[in-house]
Amino acid sequence: MKLVLASNNPGKVREIEAIAGGSLELVQQPTSRIADPDVPHPFFVENALAKARHASSAARLPALADDSGLCVDALGGEPGVNSAYYAGREGGREERDARNNAKLLAQLGAERSAYYCCLIVLVRRPDDPRPLIAEGVWRGEIARAPRGANGFGYDPLFFLPELGKTAAELAPAEKNRISHRALALRKLFDLLHAADRY
After folding, report:
1. Pick the CATH number of 2-196 from 3.40.47.40, 3.40.50.720, 3.30.470.20, 3.90.950.10
2. Percentages (nearest 5) of helix, strand, coil residues in the chain
3. Cα-based angle 158, 160, 163 (whole degrees, multiple of 5)
4. What residues are annotated to the active site?
5. Segment holding 79, helix H or strand E
6. Which of 3, 15, 137, 196 would suit a FRET pair with 154, their CA atoms being 20 to 30 Å apart?
7. Is residue 36 a contact partner of residue 8, using CB atoms and an 8 Å limit?
């Protein structure tokens, strides 16, 4: 199945392509010259749907979109849908990531539980009345200081007690096996196979 991948985030694109493993023919947004839409919604699923419908309309193809973020229990679920711009929109992606991580650390006390949430949506056309929607949740906690050089975003702070590592200390293949994005994509593939039977 040929899909436009509705993301200009190179980290997400890398992970989705690796997890999909050639089972989908993914066309990247920059190749199709599709800008990211405005996604002001307060919920992951609404933002993912907006991205997918926008990309499908622009590319005239089915579209796959992900909206995801880090949710910290002590902060009432923040940064959540605001994860990418938690500490502002200024600067490049790496600069924003560093600022976001610093802000998060400054706001936390003893309670450190958190989870990554990913909502993935597939639309067959812009006005698809039955989009496929899958969710993945990856539980962990926030480390006291950044560790590791892999991944992106909050990965240097997202600590997995059962592994004794942050997400940024995992090899990419290991992260792509157990992450929120991997869990959501596997569920989406199951839904896609089930839908193909009807």
Report:
1. 3.90.950.10
2. 40, 25, 35
3. 140
4. 67
5. none
6. 3
7. yes
CA 12 to chain centre: 6
pLDDT at 198: 40
Domain boundaries, the chain: 2-196
**Confidence at residue 33, expressed as pLDDT on a 0 to 100 scale:** 63
pTM: 0.91
Are 143 and 167 in contact by the 8 Å Cβ rule? The answer is: no
List, run by run, the mean pLDDT of 10-residue segments along the chain (198 residues).
Answer: 88 90 80 65 92 92 95 97 94 94 96 98 96 97 96 97 98 96 95 72
Single-letter amino acid code for the residue at 54 = H
Cβ neighbors of 15 (< 8 A, separation 6 or more) are: 172, 175, 176, 179, 181, 182
What pLDDT does residue 36 have? 65
What are the CA-CA distances from residue 59 to residues 49, 52, 62, 93, 168 (Å)? Answer: 15, 10, 8, 25, 33
The whole-number pLDDT of residue 8 equals 83
Identify the three-state secondary structure at position 51: helix
How far lies 67's CA from each of 29, 162, 198, in Å?
15, 26, 27
- Residue position matching structure tokens 């992900």: 66
